[in-house]
Amino acid sequence: MPTDTRTINTYTVAAFYKFVTLTNLSGLQAELQEFCKQHEIYGTIILAEEGINGSIAGEADNINAMIAFLRSKEQFVDLECKLSCSDFRPFNKSWVLIKKEIVTFGALDRAPQHKTGTHVNAIEWNKLISSPDVLVIDTRNTYEIELGAFKGAVNPNTEKFTEFRGFVKTELDPVKHKKIAMYCTGGIRCEKASSYLLEQGFENVYQLQGGILKYLENTPAEESLWEGKCFVFDDRVVLEKEAIKIERDQQ
After folding, report:
1. According to a count of CB atoms within 10 Å of the terminal CB, is the N or C end of the chain lower?
2. Which of 203, 202, 184 is CA-nearest to residue 138?
């Protein structure tokens, strides 16, 4: 039976990623495993030669310590982090894994840090997706989109991210689709999706910086174009606006 992690405590949940060339993955893995153990941090951190991707939870001070620890390293000095809260611990275990990719996609000639779409912040995003000549695409999977999305966004009808390439091949055309704006939960899938579109000859490709999580964090409710709830990959399943924490209040 699964362990019941519900308590009266409030946990801070941090989501982060960065595409950067990493070496000595096993050494970094050991460091992070020990740090998580000492600071009672739960969740998953994925390491690959192309970078880092993590979703972790713990007491606020411990999460802040982890982010500070990562940012103390030259390759992660500008690491961005999205924070939210939970009234129970949304992960039961702690994992630091080494994989081929930090988010599985494949088929890219170059890592996303070398060529991606134009990053657009929350303020600019509303104006961008309201333009009639912009095709808005949700790069998430169908089960995520069913819970919430930006109005009018195209659903690629995928069950896993690797299927997105097939959607591009059959449904998109660089000649017809002159401007494309994409979004996902935290931004990482758009890094690879936008890079792939540029490789396929699409020229004007934009992506929501920090994804839905950063958008909800920075956009007042009365200005938000988001409809519904945001699916998250932990035991909370969905995330409400009220659960988003402003990073500057935590660092």
Report:
1. N
2. 184
- Separation of alpha carbons 123 and 90, rounded Å: 30
Q: Which two tokens stand for residue 207?
A: 């992506």
Strand runs labelled E in the chain: 6-19, 42-48, 51-58, 81-88, 94-98, 118-120, 135-138, 148-150, 179-183, 204-208, 226-228, 230-231, 238-239, 244-245
Separation CA 203–CA 209 (nearest Å): 18
Name 241's bridge partners.
none
First to last CA, the chain: 36
Record the pTM: 0.84
How confident is residue 144, by pLDDT bands cut at 50, 70 and 90?
very high
List helix spans (H) across 39-179.
60-71, 122-129, 142-145, 164-171
Judge contact between 243 and 88, C-beta under 8 A.
no
pLDDT computed for residue 111 by the predictor? 61
Is the sign of the CA dihedral 86, 87, 90, 94 positive or negative?
positive
Has residue 221 got a pLDDT over 80?
A: yes
Closest by CA position to 119, among listed 15, 209, 12: 209
Arithmetic mean of pLDDT, 86-115: 85
Whether 206 and 131 have beta carbons less than 8 Å apart is answered as no
CA-CA distance, 79 to 63, in Å (whole number)?
14
Q: Angle at Cα 120 formed by Cα 119 and Cα 123, nearest 5°?
A: 160
pLDDT > 90 fraction of the chain, expressed in percent and rounded:
75
Enzyme catalytic residues: 184
Sign of CA dihedral 19, 249, 4, 33: positive
